[in-house]
Design goal:
Distance between the termini: 38 Å
Shape: globular
CATH class of the largest domain: Alpha Beta
Mean pLDDT: 81
Number of strands: 20
Strand content: 5-15%
Strand order of the largest sheet: 3-2-1-4-5-6
C-alpha cells in the first residue's frame, strides 16, 4: 500500500455530514413521491413521466393535486402519503437552516458585547473551530473567535460561538470581543511573532479590567523554545501585566506529557527488573525535541539514564542546534543523533535502522511529517522485526490530523507481521484549553509545590522558587512537574500499584529505599540541569548553582535524607488524591488451574491482583480470560520470548483472537527474562 493510496482511504466528511444527510433525505422523499404518482397514473410515454415528475415537485410547496384521490380510487399508495407530508417539512427545514447560517455570524458578532465569562480564541482556524464545536457528551464552549478576514469568518461561522472579524494585534479588536469580562483568551497563531503581538494586545486591552474580577488567563502557544524561555523570564512572577495572567504554552510539550501519562513507559519496559529505557525517535521536529527532553527528565530506571537515539535526515545539524539551545547539560549526553532517510518503502534502509540505532530499542516514537507516512513506517518496521524473528517493541505515532489510522491496523490482513501495540498520540492537544495549559497534569505538580510552601517557616518565602503557583516561574514549575510525572515509573520500579481508597503503604526495606533514593537523586539532578542549574561548592539561587549536583555516593547524609523523603512523601501525596498504594499480588500462569486462579483472586483483597502469563498454551489464554471475568480490575502482564505472530501460530485458531485481544489490552507486554 503506497502513501497516496492510504491517503485516499481516509474520508473526512467534516462539516459536510449534515449536507449529505439532507441530500439523502430529500432524494429519498422525491423518489417515494414519484413512485406513488407512477403507481396511480402508470405512465407509458415520456410526457406522462414528466407529468408525474411535475406533480412530485408540487409536493415541495404542499400542493397536493385534487384529482389524485379520484384517480387512485381513495387508495393512495403509502409512498405518496409519506412524500406528501415529508417533502414540504424537509423544504421548510432546509430553508430555515440556510437562513440561520446567513444570519448566525452577524447576530453573534452583534451580541459579543453582552457576553461574560466567555473564551476568546484567535489563530489557526481548524483548532479554534474545534474548540467551539459541540462534542459528544460535552457542552459547547461559550466563546468568541477572532477571524482575520471575511473569508476566514465564513469558514468559522459553520462552527459554534460568535465570530468577530478583526486584527488580533489591535487592542480595540479585543475590546470588541469583550476582553474586560472574558474568563480566558487562547492564542494559537501559527507564527510566533503574531502570537506575541496578540498577547501584548490583550495585555493592553485588559488594563481597564475590573479589580473585582480575576485576571484573564491568556494562553499563548509558542513553538520556539528560546522565545518561550525569554517571555517567561520577562513576565513570569512580575506584576507588569495588570489584569492578565500570561501562560506560555507549547503544544508539543502538552502532547508529549499527555502521551506518557496515558501510555506510561513501564507498560513495555520491565522497570521492575531494572531494564533501562532505550527509546528511538524517528523525525525530530518540535514533538521529537519535547520527547527527548521529557525522557531525559522522567525515564530514569535503577539509577540508569535513558538511552535515546534520534534518526532524521538532518540529524547532525539538528543535534548541534538542540544541544546549543539547551546549554549542553549532562542529561543530554545519552541522546544520540544519527542520519537516516526514513523511507518506509526502502527495505534496505529499514534493515539498516534495525541493525543499528533501532536494534536495542524497547519503545519507538515515529514523529514524521504526515500521518499516512508514519503508519507505513510503523508497518515497515514491524516487517523488519518479523524478518529478524524478534519481538517488536511498541510504536507510538505522532498524529497530525483528526483521524486515528492506527485503529484499522490490527484488522489488516498482513500475515506474519505483528500489528499489535501500535498507537497514535497528539492531534487534540491544541484543541483543548486544559491540555494546552497543563491544568489537568499540573494538579499533582501543584500539590507538590503547595506542600513545599507549607513546610516553609512563617515569613520565609523570599526566593523565586517560593512563590505561589500562579506567580511561579516556568523553570520552577517544570521542576515540580518532573517530580510529579515520575511517580508512575517509580511505583512500577518498586513493584507497587495504586487503587482508589485509603490504606497503609507497603513495607519498604532499607536496601529498596536506598535504591529508590539513589534513582530519585539522579532524576532530580537531571531535572535541575535541564532547567539551567550547575554544580558549585556554594548554593547560589540567582546564578542557579547547587552543591548537590554530584553523584549520590558523595552526598552528605542530610542531602541523601532529602531524596529518601521524596520517596516517602510519594505515598502521602497520593493519599491526598484519594489513592492508596499496594504491592502487586502476582500469580504466574505456568499452568492453567482454574480452581487455583479462582482461589487466588478471591484472596487478593489489598489491591488488584496481577497475573503473569506467556500465553504458551490454549488453556493459559482461556484461564486469563476467566481471570478477567472474575475480577475486572485484574492486572495482566504478558511475557513473550518470540514475535507475536509466532506465538499466535502456536495456539489453536479458535483462541488466537482472544490472545490477540489480551496482548492489545495488557497492562504490560515485556520480553521474557532469561
Amino acid at each position: 500500500m503506497t502513501p497516496t493510496s492510504l491517503r485516499w482511504t481516509v474520508v473526512n466528511l467534516g462539516g459536510q455530514k449534515a449536507t449529505l444527510l439532507k441530500t439523502v433525505l430529500g432524494a429519498a422523499t422525491c423518489v417515494l413521491g414519484f413512485m406513488g404518482f407512477a403507481e396511480i397514473y402508470r405512465p407509458a410515454t415520456p410526457e406522462a413521466y414528466i407529468e408525474c415528475l411535475f406533480r412530485t415537485v408540487q409536493l415541495l410547496f404542499a400542493q397536493f393535486p385534487p384529482d389524485v384521490r379520484a384517480a387512485a380510487g381513495d387508495q393512495i399508495p403509502w409512498t405518496l402519503n409519506v412524500a406528501r407530508f415529508a417533502m414540504p417539512a424537509l423544504f421548510l427545514w432546509f430553508g430555515a437552516t440556510a437562513l440561520v447560517r446567513k444570519i448566525r455570524r452577524p447576530i453573534g458578532a452583534a451580541s459579543v458585547g453582552m457576553k461574560r465569562g466567555h473564551l476568546i480564541l484567535t489563530g489557526a482556524a481548524d483548532h479554534t473551530a474545534a474548540l467551539m464545536r459541540r462534542r459528544k457528551g460535552a457542552p459547547a464552549e461559550d466563546g468568541v473567535i477572532l477571524a482575520g478576514d471575511e473569508a476566514e469568518a465564513a469558514t468559522l461561522s459553520a462552527g459554534r460561538g460568535a465570530v468577530l472579524v478583526g486584527d488580533s494585534a489591535d487592542p480595540e479588536t479585543w475590546h470588541r470581543a469583550g476582553v474586560l469580562r472574558a474568563r480566558a483568551a487562547l492564542i494559537l497563531e501559527s507564527d510566533d511573532r503574531a502570537g506575541m503581538a496578540a498577547a501584548l494586545a490583550v495585555a493592553e486591552a485588559a488594563r481597564d479590567r475590573s479589580t473585582e474580577l480575576e485576571p484573564i488567563d491568556v494562553v499563548c502557544a509558542l513553538a520556539d523554545p528560546d522565545l518561550r524561555a525569554l517571555v517567561d523570564q520577562v513576565y513570569r512572577g512580575q506584576d507588569v501585566l495588570p489584569g492578565v495572567a500570561l501562560h506560555i504554552a507549547s503544544p508539543a510539550e502538552a502532547r508529549v506529557r499527555d502521551l506518557l501519562a496515558r501510555e506510561p513507559l513501564h507498560r513495555s519496559v520491565d522497570v521492575e527488573r531494572g531494564e533501562p529505557v532505550r527509546a528511538a525517535i524517528l523525525g525530530f521536529g518540535a514533538t521529537g525535541e519535547a520527547l527527548a527532553l521529557q525522557l531525559a527528565r522522567a525515564a530514569i530506571v535503577a539509577d540508569q539514564p535513558p538511552q535515546v537515539v534520534v534518526v532524521d535526515r538532518q540529524a547532525a545539524r539538528q543535534g548541534r542546534a538542540f544541544r546549543e539551545r539547551h546549554g549542553r547539560p549532562a542529561p543530554l549526553e545519552t541522546i544520540a543523533f544519527q542520519e537516516g532517510d526514513l523511507d518506509p518503502g526502502d527495505e534496505g534502509e529499514i534493515d539498516r535502522l534495525l541493525a543499528g540505532p533501532l536494534g536495542e530499542a524497547n519503545i519507538v516514537f515515529v514523529c514524521l511529517s504526515d500521518d499516512p507516512t508514519s503508519v507505513l513506517m510503523a508497518v515497515a518496521l514491524r516487517r523488519g522485526w518479523a524478518r529478524l524473528g524478534r519481538l517488536a517493541p511498541p510504536i507510538r505515532l505522532r498524529r497530525h490530523g483528526p483521524h486515528d489510522l492506527t485503529r484499522q491496523l490490527s484488522a489488516l490482513p498482513i500475515p506474519d507481521v505483528d500489528l499489535t501495540r501500535i498507537s497514535s498520540f497528539g492531534g487534540d492537544e491544541a484543541r483543548n484549553l486544559e491540555a494546552l495549559t497543563g491544568a489537568r497534569l499540573d494538579r499533582r505538580a501543584r500539590a507538590i509545590h503547595d506542600g513545599y510552601l507549607g513546610r516553609l517557616p512563617a515569613g520565609g518565602a523570599t526566593q523565586p522558587s517560593q512563590r505561589p503557583w500562579p506567580r511561579l516561574g516556568q523553570a520552577y514549575r517544570q521542576a515540580n512537574r518532573d517530580q510529579a510525572d515520575y511517580i508512575p515509573l517509580r511505583l512500577a520500579s518498586l513493584g507497587w500499584t495504586t487503587r482508589p481508597g485509603a490504606g497503609a503503604s507497603p513495607p519498604l526495606t532499607e536496601a529498596a529505599m536506598e535504591r529508590a533514593a539513589r534513582t530519585e537523586h539522579r532524576r532530580w539532578a537531571a531535572s535541575a540541569e535541564l532547567i539551567g542549574w550547575r554544580h558549585a561548592a556554594v548554593r547560589d539561587n540567582a546564578r542557579k548553582r547547587h552543591p548537590d549536583l554530584v553523584p549520590y555516593d558523595t552526598l552528605s547524609e542530610a542531602a541523601k535524607a532529602k531524596d529518601r523523603a521524596v520517596v516517602g512523601d510519594m505515598v502521602a501525596l497520593l493519599a491526598q488524591e484519594g489513592v492508596a498504594v499496594s504491592a502487586f499480588d502476582s500469580l504466574r500462569l505456568d499452568s492453567a488451574d482454574a480452581e487455583a486462579i479462582a482461589a487466588r483472586l478471591a484472596s487478593a483483597t489489598e489491591g488488584p491482583p496481577r497475573i503473569i502469563s506467556g500465553l504458551d498454551t490454549d488453556d493459559q489464554v482461556r484461564a486469563l480470560e476467566t481471570a478477567r471475568r472474575l475480577r475486572p480490575d485484574v492486572i495482566w502482564r504478558i511475557e513473550l520470548d518470540e514475535p507475536v505472530p509466532s506465538r499466535l501460530e502456536a495456539l489453536s485458531p479458535d483462541v488466537r483472537p482472544a490472545a490477540m485481544a489480551l496482548i492489545e489490552g495488557a497492562d504490560q507486554v515485556v520480553a521474557a527474562s532469561d
